[in-house]
What we know:
The protein has 221 residues and is an alpha+beta fold. The chain has helices at residues 35-43, 67-83, 111-121, 157-166, 193-197, 201-211; strands at 5-6, 10-13, 28-30, 48-50, 91-100, 103-105, 125-135, 140-152, 186-190. It contains 6 helices and 9 strands, in the order βββαβαββαββαβαα. β3, α1 and β4 (48-50) form a beta-alpha-beta unit.
Amino acid sequence: MMSTATTDITESADGPSPTEGIDVACPLILASSSPRRHDLLQAAGVPFRAVPPRIDEPADLEGYASPAQLAEALAFFKARAVADRHPDTWILGADTIVALEGEILGKPRDADHARTMLHRLSRSRHAVITGVALLRPDGRRYLTSDTTYVTMRPMTDAEIEDYIASGEWIGKAGAYAIQETADRFVTRVEGSFSNVVGLPIELVTRMLRRYAHLELPTDGA
């Protein structure tokens, strides 16, 4: 059975109260340089343009109450970095992390770090969490996250070394890309597959319909 865990959407405001019926008057901006998120949003029929956030991801991932809270904070930081340059546009930010037994696994620093992550994920059931931040031009913001559980079969040392040599782990939370060849290590996905890729498109399209009043195709969302 497919299941998922989505946190409640947190709404807050830095600016004036929102106007009822506000629509996306100019294209939505995706605060990301990820081709995976770009492709997912495009396939969902969402009109947008991508602007990479000028922000360095923190090396220290500690200090947050939960992995979901961290993912939401990182998504917000990305969106805010772009909103500072485009204050009159709706901004969508996202960030994906992996959590194993309560420990957060972000993007590996190098090949040795990726190798260590993959050895830990081998034979595991772990959480893949994507935080989502939607910022509107009037200062209102909506934060939430989606969690998918991924089960991996045991990986041999040779398989891990081959995967490291492929370079697919670079820039990937948990050091693997399920949408590429790492799917051969996965035996079960509980929840949104697109969430593991990097953007829970079902959640995102619901948010865009509800808050941005954006008319979108209904297939798969």
